[in-house]
Amino acid sequence: MPDDNLFPLIGALAEQTDSTEDPGKDGDTIGASDEERVVQEIESLCVNCEEQGTTRLLLTSIPYFHEVIVMSFRCEHCGFSNNEIQSAGVIRPVYTARILSRQDLDRQIVKSETCTVTIPEYELTIPASKGQLTTVEGIIGDVIRDLSYDQPLRRIQDEDTFTKIQALVDKLKAIVPDEDGNITPKGAVDSEAPMPPFTLKLDDPAGNSFIEFVDSMADPKWNLRTYRRTKEQNIVLGLVAADDSFVDEKEKPTEDAPTDDNANEEIYVFPGICSSCGHPLDTMMKKVVIPYFKDILIMSTNCDHCGYRDNEVKSGSAISEKGKRITLRVEDREDLSRDILKSETCGLTIPEIDLVLQAGTLGGRFTTLEGILEQVFEELSEKVFAAGDSVGSADPDGPDLQGRNKFEVFLESLKAVKSAERPFTIILDDPLANSYVQNLYAPDPDPNMEIESYERTWEQNEELGLNDMKVEGYGQEDKDTTGS
User: What pTM does this model have?
Assistant: First the structure.
């Protein structure tokens, strides 16, 4: 985390600037010392006249966003000036907001030149373009205006494309109803009028975009998720130099058999067909050894044509004789970084917020505790906000809205839990003992974690298909049956 002294809040900088520029008794300005100076000045070459100019650097932190560096250059010889801003904080690339009512259209958006905007309900993707400060309503209005611009020409040249685009424009005009495609003036539309709900996603590999939340970051309609950038994204952002020696994992030669030292490093590739679009794709599988646990198999599928992704985790060991129940007491954010393996037969429970996930939910996952809670939040929020009418158009006394409000309260509690704002307990119950939570004190016992082994019931064995499984003498039994 960046030092707060190095990146002070922008409001504190403004107060410090005002206090250092008060005139003294003799009319002179009281200047700060070099160590206390808010803006750093550096002599630099002017690209216009090649004389020496001055570059001023301001390191500041924008609340609820991240740390930035504001740079300003001016040449006193030719008058040339330039201003720009660069990110200096942590990466926060994906923001998601559920737009359920017209009040949500007023949420402000900071969109950088590397940000991609997506509305899944309309299969609409706005590629990275110029940066802008706007609102959700402004984004929709820009799309309507840009798509409507060449519609008369498309109607003559390509009627099929015209029809598809016009259908999308008509749907968007139900959100921003303006015949000319311009942004609707504020107050021109009844704020209580029904509006089709939709989801707005900002995906910025540089982490320089942002969408406003309401009241606090516990807003159930707002979510933040991070991911690891690929090397291609780092090259596009200029963070990594492109070299010809880089070879993708699935293009690595596999002629040489792996040795004992790197046997677990080999990635196996299986060709297949995408279940979403039918194009050929590769499924990659890798064996991973988890310390103090057992071997697992991680399988990943990624379609380059339609973007379909799937991953699954399987146990690489024999069936355990007993089941396992893991109870972890989470007290701070450090516990959220624990590795967690949740198999497809494992159930998950958080008693403090009455969260119960049955076995099979989310499938097998190998991630962190924060990652599994993030997936649970996304799955639940998408299901509840994607169905039904928007909150603004529903009956305030109706059972649907009351149930939705209760679910929003639950999502706020889940959001507080996944941010470790309050202590909680997570319980993993796996009858096959194929689930795992990282022990931060290994090989010593973890004081915050309890692991209990138990005998499976007959019902659990029946559900897993173990009661009818015969692993000894089955060949002899088949021979006796054939002879008789």
Answer: 0.52
